[in-house]
Amino acid sequence: MSDAYERERQNNSRLSELSAKVSALRGVTVDIYDNARQQDVIDDTSNTFSSMSTSLKGSAGRLGRMAASGNKVAIFKLSGIIIGIVLALWFLWGLFV
Description:
Number of strands: 0
Distance between the termini: 80 Å
Oligomer: single chain
Helix content: over 70%
Largest sheet: none
Order of helices and strands: HH
Strand content: under 5%
Structural class: mainly alpha
Shape: rod-shaped
Number of helices: 2
Radius of gyration: 32 Å
């Protein structure tokens, strides 16, 4: 009878060890999933900035062609846009500093 209790105690001890290992494995699995999800966010952000860079290059090219055409009204519009952006940035800088 004592032998049966000893085996039961050993089984309970091993079951507790196994439960701890399964919990640790579950934690590692969740960490891996979270890390993979964060990598996906980083990749999406990289794609967004790449798309924005391509769009800006296209816009800069069109503005350059417009200025090269010699149209004075277009050059004044471009100058106004640039001055407006600089003033807006200067104003925003003053708000946050």
